Amino acid sequence: MSIWGNLIGGYLGFSIAGPIGALIGSIIGGKISSARRKGFQQNFINHKQVFAVSLVILTAKLAKVDGQVSKEELVAIKEKLKIPDNEIDQVGKIFNKAKQDSMGFEPYAQQIAKIYEKNPAVLDEVINVLFYIAEADGRVSRSELSMIKNIGNIFGISDSQFEGIKESRKGSDKLNPYIVLGCNPKDDLSTIRKKYLQLSKEHHPDVLISKGVPKEVIEESKKKMRSINAAFDKIKKIK
Fold it and tell me: How do residues 191-201 score in pLDDT, each as one tens digit?
């Protein structure tokens, strides 16, 4: 079953507090009694749902940062997030609510950072997918880059880590391997190998899925893993 179709039906808004819960709760409204809400608040958070909703909300804010959201951008978002036709209405409710609401992206990013503070690789993946969305029209604009960078700062992602994520978006023949791995060209191969193994473990698709990244967007994780492998292969040849 796709993660997208159960975002609202799964009553995520009453499983989690904060701005994300408030946004989903405002969509559901009074359809759930206060007694049932109390029960839902005690539920464990479904991390795949949280990740999916986080992407929809931040994508809505990102799509709006350059001005009016075009039909072409919405089509690209649907395709890039692999949202089935029969579930687009569910996701659209969240997207439109996030796009219309006056709150900036910062409170949502802060809540996402708190939820995944013990799984920083998942936060890296949010940034990775936001770059993927921003590339929909062929380029990442200055305002889009600024917003993604600010989200990265809220997530506690260092400048070196951010540049590594951005660099990994390039083709393997164009990327700077040292930036991807967050290493210095003066580092010896043993030091670089330790960094490579650490990143390989953290960003392996199976590990990310176990930590809450939905399979619908895991293809971007696989691309990042290929970039990490390509970067180390390049450095081995150089060294």
Answer: 999 999 999 99
Specify the pTM: 0.84
| CA-based torsion, 108, 127, 94, 66: positive or negative | positive
**Burial (Cβ within 10 Å: 0-12, 13-18, ≥19) of residue 93:** middle
Q: From CA 7, how far away is CA 164, in angstroms rounded?
A: 31
For residue range 103-127, what is the model confidence (pLDDT) as tens digits?
Answer: 999 999 999 999 899 889 889 989 9
Please report, as a single letter, which amino acid is at residue 228. I
Distant-in-sequence contacts of 19-28, Cβ < 8 A, 24+ apart: 19/103, 19/107, 19/108, 19/111, 20/50, 20/53, 20/54, 20/57, 20/108, 20/111, 20/112, 23/57, 23/94, 23/97, 23/98, 23/101, 24/53, 24/94, 26/97, 27/93, 27/94, 27/97
